[in-house]
């Protein structure tokens, strides 16, 4: 049960990091995959023998052993198993959608951007990724099973990434709709990719080059689960510096960087400007705004006031600042659309972005497709991609502290009490608060910035995020709110300074 991590399974799959003992062994993957067969059979009302389940993985060193164990678990339950080998998380969901595959369910073996020794499993049905309660059910079922074996030769090979890449190519062709060169609409454009030695290297050869783009200068396209160059994570500054350097050195028109399993991305413009975090949200919203006028953009809780101003006053959209966690923003987007509020985009500052037009799937490659179409159209009109976010302003400073909760078993309830007292103290001082706040307490300091205190999604700590409109302002904001978190016996605020 300790392998449950939100709506995924995650654990330590390899030795090599001191103090981190292996707890995600092939046996666990075997039992959990068998439990997934039982879950699907019950959900779909089918016999196990009628089920088709695909399994893929990213470049992690532990991928093959976990995949083989999972395939055996599926086969031993009597279901049909398909080995997709190297794939991306979005591609694994699309294996359910594509008419030529039509899987009943799929499993992606990945731990996203986490270190080399970690791994995990993500599960999909036609309804999308499983929820936290589904993962708990899977693990409870798996705990009551015994490891089973089967002939791996019965697993059918499936070149899923080729089918997926071809579908992306066709979306770009249709989106650009070039009368001059429909088949290769990216001809004349120079686009570099940094895959971070994850699973995203296919995008350079099977999509960009296929459409005529020059991809010379691309970085780390070869899969290598030791991640020797940088963490494959668009939130990592070393990773962003790498793609920025590649764009400038190659004089490219655009740079695209993916995380390990390609469900997140960021970009770099020709002058080295990073399109990540708030800027990525602004760019995607600007691309979508003409097709969804007046619609609602769902973001996580740490987006900037400058972004809100851009969305609402420049693009004439509505900004719904919700909770962190990609499943949270996606589910809120689905809820709003079902309730009749048009919401085309749910996106986190982490780079997880899901579009209603794309099955609410957080797909880094699909975001890249939207950027490429916009870039090609801008080029045809004598414009540049940066024009879309020319009016976006940025805070002068931003900061995140993590206040650890120590010595408490029920850290969530303790954090809830801290937040209640934090709010009470702020009100007593007459400090303004953002209303509504769907996650934590957000304090507003007009003309200066804001501070958000919230609970971590998974860990015993309380992140405190802040942004300032002034240079040196974060230090001033820290001093203003320090007294609001003092005196809690189990809350370590030493990171805020003496």
Automatic annotation (TrEMBL):
Gene3D superfamilies: Alpha-D-Glucose-1,6-Bisphosphate, subunit A, domain 3, Alpha-D-phosphohexomutase, C-terminal domain. InterPro entries: A-D-PHexomutase_a/b/a-I (IPR005844), A-D-PHexomutase_a/b/a-I/II/III (IPR016055), A-D-PHexomutase_a/b/a-II (IPR005845), A-D-PHexomutase_a/b/a-III (IPR005846), Alpha-D-phosphohexomutase_SF (IPR005841), Phosphoglucosamine_mutase (IPR050060). SUPFAM superfamilies: Phosphoglucomutase, first 3 domains. One of its GO terms (molecular function) is phosphomannomutase activity. Residues 5-134, 184-272, 278-391 form the Alpha-D-phosphohexomutase alpha/beta/alpha domain. The keyword Phosphoprotein applies. GO terms for biological process: carbohydrate metabolic process. Its cofactor is Mg(2+). Keywords: Phosphoprotein. Belongs to the phosphohexose mutase family. PANTHER family: PHOSPHOGLUCOMUTASE (ALPHA-D-GLUCOSE-1,6-BISPHOSPHATE-DEPENDENT) (PTHR42946:SF1), PHOSPHOHEXOSE MUTASE (PTHR42946). This is Phosphomannomutase/phosphoglucomutase. It comes from Anaerovibrio slackiae.
